[in-house]
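Page 47, continued from p. 46.
Same chain as before, 175 aa.
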Amino acid sequence: MAKEQEKEAKGKDSEVKKEEKKGKKKYTEVDPRTLISVPTILCPMCGLPMEIKGRKEVEKTARTLRGKTTRKVPHLVYQCAKDKTEFNLNLERRGGGCFIATAAFGTSMAHEINVLRSFRDNYLMRESAGRGFISLYYRVSPTVAKLISRSRALKFITRMLLLPIVKAVQRTLGL
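Result:
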């Protein structure tokens, strides 16, 4: 049995090498059991977790110096099983964006930043006021984060200001 598997593996390796020689790129398939990080979105109507129904491209219009431009942005489509409410999660800035906290704590992997991301994804993204706050934050925070990252005193002050917020969010989320 093990010898048969070895022969199959060698055969696949030689096929990949032949395709590479021909100039064709061979892409490896992703194991569907691989864990990826997507937020759990709660239905605003009933409070139940929504299911991911698929992906779609949404056209986004942006103003530039030359006028308006449109581009397609990937979104995950969530749907509530109970009342069929849909929610589109923008994947454009997925997983990042905590500029000020990253500057204050010195790494994007700090536990406090993960707490804030969870709050953003699971609470702020559900309400239009929360999405407006996030939009404003993304416009203002890169400049503020640059100032914070250059000063040890500002890093300390920002951490002291963020810690009570993180503790309150942890209590709210039950983390």
